[in-house]
Design brief:
- With 653 residues, the chain is of the alpha/beta class.
- It has 4 domains: 13-270, Rossmann fold, CATH 3.40.50; 278-384, no CATH class; 386-473, Luciferase, Domain 3 (Luciferase, domain 3); 476-642, ANL, C-terminal domain (GMP Synthetase, Chain A, domain 3, 2-Layer Sandwich).
- The protein contains 21 helices and 28 strands.
- The strands form 7 sheets. A 5-stranded parallel beta sheet has the order 4-3-5-6-7, with helices on both faces. A 5-stranded mixed beta sheet has the order 12-13-14-15-16. It has a 5-stranded mixed beta sheet with strand order 24-25-26-28-27, sandwiched between helices.
- Helix 5 (121-130) links the parallel strand 5 and strand 6.
- The radius of gyration is 25 Å and the shape is globular.
- The termini are far apart.
- 46% of the residues are buried.
């Protein structure tokens, strides 16, 4: 098991790093795939690399209390940069690497960034694009030197050059590094993570070493994680999920972090590593399922028939077998075992999930149907509930005690209560120290009793499991007075591989209507097999056959909703397929791909009005941002489709 005894030196990240380097120096800490080959770095080597960088930063003038931005994909050196900054008593501030320069400018300014360490030329160019408005940034370090030969700005230094400077500094000041490490305190801020900004400008969430480490210790004990586990690091460095489940958990449990070659090779690298521990937001599991269904549609008739037959078996008995529950007959067990041999096992192997011991999803609600799919295959997928401000973990599902529609019970040391308004309130050791430079927002979020107001609506069921309905501000009522929970409806739509995103409307209205984004890969594959020609997303989305396809999906959701007494009146009456994909660069989604519902309602107000005005179509012209920063417009005459609704199925008295 991982070392969990609390003693001086193991209550900060630098202390934990040095402990691993001393007690298990030859164990793998990082792997990175470079040029098709996995390269391994041990804990002892990581400690040396971090020390060299920390001393190099100190030689350049970085001091305790300064903030340093980290921008790039999941790279070992960027994780080491976090450690180096923490060793000096500074604060790392990871940013979303796919954000345009203008979005980065706000965070860089708000976080009072003095230094920045970035991955490559692309990120360097972004910083220099906005550098004039950010005079505080005095040094920019880059990891990948390709394309940087002719850059001569005085602020620029290569990562390797700063490490070499650090080694010289270390020889001249041999006591400096340990003095800096020993000055770090558990209540010091260890990271500033910016919120997704769903409803406004992102806020910097400050977490202490003590809060993050306490949360990770509980997690390691909860699922018995230790140095033998493997984790694939593919989520954005700026997301709290990666900082906790990758960076922090590796310091506590001592397992190896595996960094993919690039974002485009994640699925291939996942298969090669075969992680034992996996974490991802629902959209990752949705994307995997979409790829599975595309492959099944392309398979021969007999393979499709076998797949669907054994999936029916899996849905009937798979979850009970996974949880070790009774009530499964010998015949069904034999059928499931045959399915494991012919379908489930090969499928999990192709997906890289064959070694998974525990997998989690969080960040937003996952559709019950999607959740059921993975668990029925024998993948121990569990839900957790939390947010950036609480070090993620508030509630988690124990193995063998998993419900599809809940997020489990509160974790050890976490207090959860439901306010009279239905809002979920949380008090825990993992609570943030506050929002950076925002005492007003901190006071608004954390009340006098120390409870954080999550903004989510929920309740506890009879077994003490927390059930999240939706964001409290998004939960509404239909004109009839019945409950309207848009995220619940949207998740049901997104279970279908042809639907990538959906936005439902219905609060205080007579009926529920929706926008749909098609999944270009899934629908494109479907169209090609049927000989449908198209020139791009907008053209494909407008095809009558595609509307028929999506209408079938919507009507299946309606049939399902009809059996839910609380949500039967939320069946979708009309929908349209948007002419463009919702995009973070157009402010329609956050960087973590959450729908910015209020912004979309304002931007596409004319389409919402058309849905409720019984129009058959509506012309719209929309401004978009391209990857190179240019702006343009896309326009289309969008068709609006009516779909069948079903009579509510009332339970017998």
């Amino acid at each position: 098991m991982a070392e969990t005894i609390q003693r001086p030196g193991t209550q900060t990240f630098p202390g934990l790093l040095l402990q691993h380097a001393q007690t298990r120096p030859d164990k793998p800490a990082f792997r990175e795939k470079d040029l098709g080959i996995w390269q391994t770095t041990t804990w002892g080597r990581v400690s040396d690399e971090v020390r060299a960088l920390a001393c190099g930063l100190a030689a350049l003038g970085f001091r305790r209390g300064m903030n340093l931005a980290i921008i790039g994909d999941n790279r070992p050196r960027l994780y080491w940069a976090m450690s180096a900054v923490q060793c000096l008593g500074g604060v790392p501030v990871p940013l979303y690497q796919d954000a345009p320069a203008a979005d980065m400018a706000y965070v860089l300014d708000n976080a009072e960034i003095d230094f920045a360490i970035v991955e490559d030329q692309e990120q360097v160019d972004k910083l220099f694009e906005i550098k004039q408005t950010l005079p505080r940034i005095s040094h920019i370090l880059f990891d990948d030197e390709r394309g940087m030969r002719h850059y001569a700005q005085p602020e620029l230094s290569s990562y390797a050059a700063v490490q070499q400077l650090g080694r010289e500094f270390d020889r001249a000041h041999p006591d400096f590094f340990m003095e800096a490490v020993n000055a770090v305190r558990p209540d010091d801020v260890c990271v500033i993570l910016y919120t997704s900004g769903t409803t406004g400008k992102p806020k910097g969430v400050c977490h202490s070493h003590a809060a993050m480490i306490a949360t990770a210790r509980v997690l390691a004990d909860f699922d018995h994680l230790d140095g033998s586990d493997d984790m694939l690091c593919y989520l954005p460095l700026a997301w709290v999920g990666d900082f906790l489940y990758s960076f922090t958990m590796s310091h506590i449990a001592g397992f190896c972090l595996n960094c993919p070659e690039s974002p485009n090779t994640v699925m291939t690298d996942l298969r090669e590593i075969g992680p034992t521990y996996y974490f991802g937001p629902p959209r990752v599991y949705e994307n995997i399922l979409t790829q599975v269904m595309i492959r099944i549609e392309d398979a021969s008739w007999i393979k499709r028939t076998l797949f669907h037959h054994f999936m029916r078996v899996a849905r009937r008995v798979g979850i009970r077998i996974l949880d070790g529950k009774g009530g499964v007959g010998l015949g069904d067990r034999m059928l499931y075992a045959l399915g494991e041999l012919m379908i489930y096992g090969p499928l999990k192997n192709v997906l890289g999930l064959s070694r998974i011991r525990v997998a989690y999803t969080g960040g937003e609600a996952i559709g019950p149907d999607l959740f059921d799919f993975y668990r029925s295959l024998g993948i121990n997928l569990k839900q957790l509930y939390g947010m950036t401000e609480t070090c993620v973990t508030v509630c988690m599902q124990r193995s063998g005690d998993v419900k599809l529609d809940t997020v489990g019970r509160p974790m050890s040391g976490v207090e959860v209560i439901i306010a009279d308004s239905g809002e979920v309130l949380v008090r825990s050791p993992g609570l943030m120290t506050g929002y950076f430079k925002r005492p007003d927002a901190t006071a608004e979020a954390i009340d006098a009793d120390g409870y954080f107001h999550t903004g989510d609506a929920g309740f506890f069921d009879a077994d003490g499991h927390l059930k999240i309905i939706d964001r409290a501000k998004d939960v509404g009522r239909m004109a009839s007075g019945t409950l309207f929970a848009p995220k619940y409806i949207e998740n049901k739509l997104k279970f279908f591989p042809f639907i990538k995103e959906a936005v439902a409307f219905g609060d205080r209205r007579e009926q529920c209507n929706a926008f749909v984004n098609i999944d270009m890969d899934a629908v494109g594959n479907w169209a090609e097999r049927r000989g449908l020609a198209y020139s791009g997303y907008t053209d494909l989305a407008a095809q009558p056959a595609v509307y028929d396809l999506i209408a079938e999906c919507v009507e299946k959701v309606n049939a399902d909703l009809a059996s839910d007494a609380l949500l039967a009146d939320s069946q979708i009456h009309r929908f349209l397929i948007l002419h463009k994909e919702l995009d973070p660069d157009d402010d329609e989604l956050t960087r973590t791909r959450k729908v910015r519902r209020g912004f979309i309602a304002e931007k596409y107000g004319v389409l919402i009005d058309a849905l409720y005005a019984d129009k058959a179509s509506q012309y719209i012209e929309t401004q978009v941002k391209f990857e190179d920063g240019r702006q343009g417009k896309v326009s289309a005459d969008l068709k609006i489709r009516d779909v069948q609704t079903f009579a509510a199925v009332r339970e017998a008295a």
